[in-house]
Fold these 2 entries.
Entry 1:
Amino acid sequence: MELHRIGVKWFAEERTPVNLLDLIPIFHRWIQEQALDDLLIDVAEYTHMYRGPGVLVIAHEGNYGYDEAGGERGLVYYSKQNLPEPELAARMVTVACKGLQACARFLGETGLARQVAFPCNRIQVFANDRLRAPNTDTAWAEFEPAVNTLAARLFPDQDRSVQRCNSDSRDRLAAIIHTNKMTEPEALLARLG
Amino acid sequence: MNWNERLAGSIPEAMGREIDQYQQQIELKKQGKVEDKLFQEARLRRGAYGQRYDNGQRHDGIAQRELDYARRNLRKGPDTLWDAPGMQRIKLPFGGISPEQMEVHADLAEEYSDAVCHVTTRQDMQLHYVHIEDTPDLMRRLAAVGITTREACGNSIRNVTACTKAGCCASEVFDVTPYARACAWFLLGHRDTQDFGRKFKIAFSGCQTEACAYTGFHDLGYIAATRPGPDGQPQRGFAVYVGGGLGPVPYQASLLSEFVPEAEMLPIAQAVSRVYARHGEKKNRGRARIKFLVANWGIEKFRAEVEAERQKMPHEEAWTSWIEEVAAWREMPLREGQALPQDAGDTVFRAWRAANVQAQRQKGYAMATIKLPLGDISSWQLRQLADISRRLNGGHARTTIEQNILLRWVAEADLPELFSELQRIGLADADAKTIADVVACPGTDTCKLGIANSRGLAATLSEIYRDKAHTLDPAIRDLRIHISGCFNSCSQHQIADIGFYGVSRKVGNAMVPHFRVVMGAHRDHNAREFGQTFGPVPSKRIPDFIERVTGLYLAERRADEGFSDFIQRLGKKGIKPLLDELGRIPPRVLDRTLYTDWRDPREFSVSDIGTGECAGAVISTTEFDLQAAEQLHFEAQVHLDDGDYRKADDTAYAAMVLAAKGLVYSEFPDVRDNPDAVVTAFRERFHDTGRFLAANAPTRFAEYLFRRHEDRERNYSVDAARRLLEETQHFVEAAYACYVRMSEQQAKKAARTQQAPALAEDA
């Protein structure tokens, strides 16, 4: 599957509700410090929207956001440009790594670490390209093995499952990886190497 | 598989071909074969617009930094980097959007943008942060559901807007929808609308009195009217207005004609376009809108020119072929109209109904406004709305110039279910058309010209008033706030009750974001009076200003005195003390708050302002034709490489005819669009006069065209096609050279004309 536009969302657990507006100065600082590997361009703010993209860091290679899609907050990263890895599973790992780096950075922010955790026991992986990966059974048959590979890399010695999200055929092809154990983003990053 | 293959059969042929050509231009640009300026105008005419920071520079709050794109030398316009994200504008004539179109927008926003669709004040949809190389597929997917982005930007006819209530409104003369649609499609890509010096905006209104379509500030405005026809029956037509506009200095449109019968609606638009294309300013971009031409000439002279032009225009079938569609135009309601008692539902529902719902002219039906915060709707919401609209109102929706969506033909009995569904998807705010329903342009969020953060301020004001709008005195509750990030009026701040536009002020060594206040407008009668500009207020003090000025109004208004009348009575003197008080700014060391903008922690700076693309570049039709001819030559080469020599031959021939047509058109715009007419005119005007001849363009280059044109019984072969391709290349090159010579001669002539009076003065 020649899929390059891939997204991964790391669901958040908020001990106390995060005021999304507080993320704006933090994300601007990330740009000042070029805190992530991508070319960070600007901050986009959609806090006025219901279950919207929240606050985003727009980058050239992909977008990072603390979003509210589906009524669940989490840190999402989705790639927008072609990725160099030849295999889909490897591209998925790259995208997951970028998201995890952002999660780790997020938790490194004073204040946010007290409010938010990324338990990483439930992760959404989606294909952001309806041409190369439509939400069909055929595409799922190609997509699922790569998700399984990612799940195995993330949680090698844990019970885990991969489930297709298919409540609306118009949605993007997506999967949820479940595991029964919570793990820190830094630890998962180390596993992905 | 690509989108072209996936959508085979769904994309109208002409649209598909245009998009293929646009994609080829992208490829040619990447190969360095197209000039920056030409590509810029070409993409603008496809609605692909620049966005803030696309020159590769951004002030991050500490310093101006370079955005280090890998392909820094590749550009999509002068000072516009290829890889920088851009905005895609999508035209929705009269704001019409079907459920299927909503779903496509939702998909595109997810895959190419940031999962948000933004409704504009001209009923367009906009997607931000789009990469230029994604735009052809984005356009194909829209074309497959009947939407074009062609001429959404650039010096062209922009989206044709109309009253959102058209067809359902009690005060309209007749439904202007089919007329707006016919006008949009007739003028789209029309030869006579390709040579404008600036953009051109058209609006249709169903009546003279309401505040819906605002023909008063459009380049061309049609207001529905009837008069007795020869048979005594009412004959449909329009009062036509021309030369209105907002921008830094607003102009009221002038009456061009009290009544133009419907059959003359399109010819008049065409005649106005021709006059504007010929006589409108092209060099001074700040004076190039048609409003300046009308103001300079006066309406009488302008009218005379239009009438003279109208007499000269060769007949077109398309002028009237659409009229029979008007009678057939009908929006079919999904179910029978059914009334709902006024006291139905709980208080929350009743509040929503009071603010957001209006009864239709048709008994038992209602129109429901879905308030979109800042004009934004997410992909998920749009998909859900598509379902709701299919199920409850037959899919009849329109985007509004207040940046909302209107669902029409809802049976009143279905309103409770609609409300409940809108609550589920977070779109049931009960304050449409109130002080909380703030209109704002993108401002510094994404616009290259933005000075201050209009969206940040709008979001803040919406939050302040969302919960308390219903507790306010109705005279305050129903005020409308519009906010533009700069003086260019994209939020239409001159027709707000309280309007603002962004400016900056220097205090000490630092900059402070401000908004200039505009008040006193009357929106009725299609925006009969624009607001006056008052002084600037620091951005962070705008909420205080609104509280104070509305408080003043409540305290000092006369009986039945509206807000705008009160402001006019108070005048600039009356408002000045308040502005002076709020305008005092403490030094930064004492309070930094005022030195940053809303929802942006960076120290305020104007260094990110770029070169706007609203004006685009003036590229003549001839230049476009020559460029297209070159592209056809390229296509012919591809056909030959694919072994289709017959197609290669015909395409090369078409390229020569197009290049010849470009030259002919530059001085004979009425040339008929067929090869015989073009070749004859080219022979007379360019070959026989020796004008096509140049040192490096021997006369045989013209003969390449004549020979191929006269070869009616052509013997197609690979060799013949190959030779013709070579000849075509020479011919197109020679046409370019000829055009350059003509332009130089014209420039010299213009310089001589300018020098002559100066010399006379010296003497």
Entry 2:
Amino acid sequence: MTDTPVTPADRLARATPAAAARRIRGLSDQAIAWLFVAPTIFLLLAINIFPLIWTIRLSFTNYAANRPNREVEWIGLRNYERILTDPDTWANMQTTAHFLIWTLFFQVLIGFTLAWLINRKFRGNDLATTLIVIPMMLSPAVVGNFWTFLYQPQIGLFNYVVAFFTGVDPGSFEMIGSVKLAPWSIIIVDTWMWTPFVMLICLAGLRSIPDYIYEAAEIDRASPWRQFWTITVPMALPFLMLAVLFRGIENFKMFDLVVLLTGGGPGDETLLASIDLKREAFEKWRTGYSSAYAIILFVTVFGLASIYVKALNKVKER
Amino acid sequence: MSASASYSITEPSARAKWIAGLLVVLYTVVTLVPLAWIISTSFKSGPDSISYPPKVLYSPTLEGYVNLFMTRTRPAVSELENLPPPANWYEKIARDQGTIIVGPSRYGERFLNSVIIGFGSTFLSIFLGTLAAYAFSRFKVPLKDDLMFFILSTRMMPPIAVAIPIFLMYRTLGLSDTHLGMILLYTAVNISLAVWLLKGFIDEIPVEYEEAALIDGYTRFQAFRKVVLPQAATGIASTAIFCLIFAWNEYAFAVLLTSGTAQTAPPFIPTIIGVGGQDWPAVAAGATLFLLPVMIFTILLRRHLLRGITFGAVRK
């Protein structure tokens, strides 16, 4: 799609006499191309690339944004050293990993199942798909904030429903307040919100499998179970892996939903890396230190994502 | 898709369809309960909202909405009794709760900020994005693939990695807490997706249309405006919805960079507190008004939205 050997301009040049060509076009195509692309590139350089370079620079200093008059010292890699040797960092990484693994697990399991069911093409499957998708379209901050109400012990709907089905006292457990349940409270809300995304990608994958493959399998008398494992799953796998990649990156940077649900608490029980980073940067004002932290997280995401993409490409080649 | 009416061995049996439909409907109902609860809570009175067991049936009231839009105080009982009778219905609702209205709240302003910043950044992303996408689709741009990848890669960058310098930069340039600052920021975040989506749409328009127009004596700009833009209208509209929803929902940058003048609704809604304790009907009312437009959009424009979401995966 990217490179057509003959551009419309070329074809046109051949179709028009040379003298007329210049008059018609006014600006040369090259000039128009640059004129059209330049603002976008400029904006991205100014608001994405320049700040990124600035973050890297700051990460080698002890700069504090709330004390702009203090002399800025160049301290080399000391910020990085302090972050990587701090046991709290590793505790936060573990919290993040726990959140990441379980949300991906549930979203893949439920999302794929839903997509598979919707692909049975029952009547009204379009409407169901649309309604299921609604939660992921909404503001995570506003929704997260309201979930704190659903999670209220005693009066909250969530506790009531759990109590209704299990018979425990709805006042006897606190989803957000207790050390044991808080990590699960954020997993539940994230799964509720983002399962539709995995479902949609899986659905696209399932719909891309041509019917004739199943027809051939049918003729070969392959059982439905065997068809599922030898056709459906392998052919939908690249899509599923892509969905995992997108969700993985997003949940590694997760901020809004969780900060409004638990704020990282109780204690530091749900303190995901990016919430911790926000505290360091904008509450403790350790700008240099948090810049280094940001770079470490950035490199981690990029590193994990590129390893994953390599694996993904291998799956696609098969 | 299977060959419609005729018998096909790949078409699931009626029973399979029925069971699948039932399970999906069950999930749909469960997943919509929290949203229904937000809307339902917004019409409850304070005591109804925190009753046990949670009330499904109640007598609806606009208390939450009045509390959302008005700032109130609770005067002493003796003072309250000496006041003249309430002048209008919302004052009466406030008075029934033992409070008096002292002025409008900030919710209206915050909502308006969300509208301005949302539409402003969407317009700018679409404007710049369409130009860039057209150039990438139709012209020989040097390093085209590299530039396209560069544009996409900025999307993978976690906002946290750039939040600190943007904060410092905005402080220096006087862009913190301004509408312009937020519009530029959201445009920068949205534009990568906009360029990619729009390039896909423009690629689908046959170049012959423009060639014909050029031969008829149109300039490039005229051909772009009068031939390409109308053809790409649907694609532009669906891309715009995506940009709008992102800007509408964004929280992390909004909470860092805005506090007053340009604060949008997402950082504001969680700070709504009533007179004496968290006023959940008011929070729910604020959330309902904020979420409802997106819910309606999603249902009305489902085709375009779903295409956009799966775009990355299907296109590769």
